[in-house]
Amino acid sequence: MPVSLLRSACRRLAAAPTGRALACAAALAACGDNHALSDAGVDALAGPPRAVIVAGDFTPGHPGVLSTIDPVTRAVRTNVGPAMAVGDDPVLRHVGGELLIVNRNDGNNVTILDDQSLALKEQLGTGAGSNPQDVAVVGSRLFVPTFSGKGLVVLTRGQTAITPVDLSADDPDGAPNCNSAYAVGGDVYVACELLDATYTPRGPGKVYVVDGTTLAVKRTITLGHANPLGVLEQVPATAPSHAGELLIPTVVFADGSGCLERITTGATPAAAGCLVNNTELKGYVSRAAFQVDKEGAIAFFAVPTTYPNAELRAYDLTISALWAGALNPTAEIAGDLAICPGGQLVLADPSAKVNGVRVYEGAAELTKEPIAIGLPPTSTHGVVCY
């Protein structure tokens, strides 16, 4: 569905006290492709479309699961990843023709799988106790932000060496608590929380721009708010506004303050203010996806609000306006999301009683109930579709 039609339909539905939520959430499923979210840009499809979901149970030593869903037939294959590929606290990125699983907490590694065969290509350790959070790719190097240590480690394909990059200059305890990385050209943007011993932010978060070749810190960007949480995502270059900008959510849980912050890239990267404030969302963004066509551009957000609720929200990038209200029914939790090449929306719903993955297309939910994947899909960046 073109952006213009979706925008018009959802505005009409927004005027109704009931009914708009399910219809809008389903309608947006026809809108696009999350390939623009990957560090490598849009990838050519090498096989049938599939959604890949990883999940863990946060119990040290317990293996996680990797499951796939055909977004057309809704056929599910559970626990199809190689043994030991997924740990108890995984994050998933799709870069080029590969799936990169960052095993956080006690996993301390990045596992690389072929995105078609799901065969293991390589597993690289990040160091004992490093607690890796995300991964960006520049050539044969993997840039992995770590919650412990000096903030960033660099791994090289085919080698076991771990090269630390010191990002601790702005944190007195020497551990800047870095949580996300994104490659733009030959540079890597690394977001860091800068927490004290009680996990309280010391002040505004930082984003460090690291040269992907020399590993030198080229620039330090001070965000407008404390505690950058979640992962960096890039607005597609074809968007009519904010094109190429990086977005990172910030939130101080004590009062809910923060926003989805913008960072311009290029020769002189800088903080560029907020795309949308947490007060408007009544929560914070935990996952963002984009749909862009010649009619305009929409950003879709998973927004945790009052625990355990999480809403699916939409922001019109063309007119810079947040759509009113949640798009998903109140009975569903929008924990994570991805948009498939055929237009289906895959929504991870980690509800306590009924959990799994839902699939929408057009104006209807294709799944009668969540599809179980083996564990509750609790990761905030654990689903991709390609």
Number of helices: 3
Largest sheet: 4 strands, antiparallel
Strand content: 35-45%
Span between N and C termini? Answer: 18 Å
Average of the residue pLDDT scores = 88
Unreliable runs, pLDDT <50, ≥5 residues? 11-45
* Approximate shape: globular
Question: What keyword list fits this structure?
Answer:
386 residues, mainly beta, four-stranded antiparallel β-sheet, 3 helices, 28 strands, 39% strand, globular
Write structural notes for this entry:
The chain has 386 residues and is mainly beta. The chain has helices spanning 3-14, 20-27, 278-281, and strands spanning 51-55, 65-69, 76-77, 90-95, 98-103, 109-114, 120-125, 136-138, 141-145, 151-156, 162-166, 178-184, 187-192, 204-211, 217-226, 233-234, 246-249, 259-264, 270-277, 287-293, 296-304, 310-316, 321-322, 336-339, 345-349, 356-361, 364-365, 383-385. The protein has a 4-stranded antiparallel sheet with strand order 3-2-1-28, with no helix packed on it. A 4-stranded antiparallel sheet has the order 4-5-6-7, with no helix packed on it. β5 and β6 (109-114) form a beta hairpin. The longest helix has 12 residues, at 3-14. The chain is globular, with a radius of gyration of 19 Å. The two termini are 18 Å apart. Mean pLDDT is 88; it is low at 11-45.
